[in-house]
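Help!! Second protein's tokens look totally different from the first
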Amino acid sequence: MISARSNLSIKKRDLPNQKTPAAAISSLYFAHKATVGDTGINLASLVNPSAEMPNHIQPTATQLNGANLLFSQNNLILTSSARGALINKMSYTVASNSLIQFVGFTALAGEIFTGLITSALATGTRVVSSAVAPVTGTLAATQTDFPVGTPFRAGAFSTAQVGEVMVFLDGLQQYRNTGNSNVTLDGNYYEVDPGSGISRVIRFNTADPVNARAVTVIYTNAVSERPDGSQMAAIEAIQGQVNTMIPVLADASGQPQSYFRAAPTGQDMKAFGDKVLKLQGLETTPGSGLPKLATTTVAGAVVVPNSHISVDTYNSAGSNTYSVLFANLTSSAGTAITRVVNAATGDGFVINENGIYAITCCIASTTTGYYGISKNGDTTVQIYNIATANALIIGQAVSSTLPIPLSVTVPLIAGDVIRAHTGTVLPASNNAMARFHIVQLVKQ
């Protein structure tokens, strides 16, 4: 005899016509109108939303307490009028037979929560369809990570050379590192475990620097998806973040919140996974979450702007007349830029690394005059007369006390020379208002 609640039902056992009395659970449906800031729902003091649900009849506190919710929390389906379906252990927890506590949020003013305690005892067992799912694809040259669509247990059958999947590379079977180790690389690959025990990525120990390779992954077990399985767990893990973002997106776009609540398709999940793997390729160490810096000499990597030069105070013009010599080196760092001082051509800032650079120049003039920033410009010619491609920016200095700063952000290549370049009127001698700054923003 199986004992659960008060209502008796008949349970058929394996033998024909054999019937055993068993206790079932009475279905209960409750509703509660929350007050702003509420941290949970007290089933012993529900507020009936009579205006919104005029025909609703609330179960009694005795009935709700008799449902033994703490034991049968899998039977509870809890819904919010503002957030949709809530998830046990993620959106709420059942603290006792009469108390449901919210996780990560508090109630909004007038938010209505409805709960259904179903009559069928939920044990966590579900009937599902299953199938072996082969995956084929191409591992690009220089890459080691191959994503698979259906998740599997990482490190299963740890003493064997294969786990829940068999991997073939260019038609040859590959073998897993001992114990699925990512340190002892004595096999061909390991199954990447992000910390949940569920893997979606095969990471080969070595990459082919030139050739793309064909990959086939065959599951050794029948694969099935269930609502509390690995794929849904991954989706549920970001549900709270999505619920927080949706109201902001709705307000900004003018769309109703329901517009953003469509479930992701398999193609969406695959595209998202491919993006993640591409970003992982820019990590200093796989799985570290840290981006490669420009010092790793990786093109396109994120750059900490540690290469820069700043100078100040107009000293004189170079003997070629139209280039500026600065008196002081204010600061410098890194190796992407080199300052070269030349009595004829003035201060030249030589670019050593391809990248995007921000340049600022400020020159005061004895009278109104033109000046600018040049790239590989002829220092014997005024800024406004050099080739258009060599004049990055041109401006006008109004007076010795009213300089007008110029700024430009441009891609530059190794070998380019940047200068503060004047026109016919030179800056005032020893004018401390003169400034020049150049900094590397991105390495290319």
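Here's the second one for comparison:
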Amino acid sequence: MNLPDTKKINIAFYTLDFKTSGVFKIISTLSQNIPSDYNLHIFVSDEHDENFIPAFKVGGVIHYFNIKDPSSRNPIKKIYKNFLRKKLLKKAKKDYKIDLTVTFSENPNLHNIVTRQNDKIVICVHNYTSINIAEDIKNRLYSFMYNRLIKKYFNRADKIVTVSSGIKTDLVNNFGMNKDLLEVLYNPHDIRRIEEMSDKELPAEYKYLFENRFSIINIGRISTQKGHWHLIRAFKIVKQQIPEAVLIIIGEGKKELTDLLSTLISDLELSNDVVFLNFQANPYVFMKNADIYAASSIFEGLPNVLIECMACGTPVISTDCRSGPREIIAPKTDSSYVTDNIEKAEFGILTPPLGRDVLNSSVPITKEETLLAYAIIMLYNDKETRSSYSIKGKLRASEFNIKNTIKYYDRLFKKVLEQ
């Protein structure tokens, strides 16, 4: 379509909810920085409490569909909810004369494609899809269904944005995506806001965690994707070498997994040294006060938290999982390469990927967990390298600044509209 000279572009972001997540952060950042030649509408599918206040600010005009019982796992209700979501999204696109609709995760991506009106469709993929489906969707029927739906529908989008080169390769090799539809755009970050928030004073009740301690921090939802049991098991080795070490895990998750982790901590006699904190409105002040950040993820897309920690000047260690950590920490290397040892990369440290199986205290420590522990100990002993990574990390994080990345999103949106 030819872009009009005087008319603003009606663009819509569609999401299921405003729960705290990496995707919601991206929507928040993009919506607050989108150029003035767009009229932005944000369609939110699911029911929310009437007193609900999103954890992050959002730009544009928000429209809630208020579909009830969003968490129900009843198969019939799930089918009906998805039918209703598509019906209301289709109507909203028509009512607000949407020119371009952008979505950011699997279900919304599928809804976006099948509700096409006169709008162009951009879908964004934020996770390593083949592993995500296998790990997060335990029901084999649902896993099979999602796999088939992605293969059938994603190529019908006008553009598929992936947030890492690894995700792009995964979609081509495992889902048959058309290479011409795919474009890699890294997640945008409001670096100035992160820096300002990190400079605030740490809440008094948490200061003891950082005083006269060597603090290792991990932030993210408690899920099997994040591999927290590996980090806790590795921390047992760390604690033997660094008596003043403390592991701080910020996040929330399902009780089944949090109970398992609590049992593991007790069995390893780490109850006084591993601290779980719930969601924090300002995680950046915790990042800045920590000595290092350690990520034990089994898989990722492009982990926002690594970039945020680097922006706070905190040295980072991450598993070299598929995908994203290598592209952030070692951008000049081949993104398909996977390390089998401790790799002192340009902007942080990478360690070998960890196994998918949830391990308890009776299972012997693995080689990969041992290397993760040794990487932490190495940084503890090498203050010069820690200082270097702190400085270099801030420079690397600045490359993901929304002021730089928004122009690439704007260019892509305009290009799609002109097709």
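Reply: Different proteins will give different token patterns, so don't panic. Residues 75-95 form the longest helix (21 residues).
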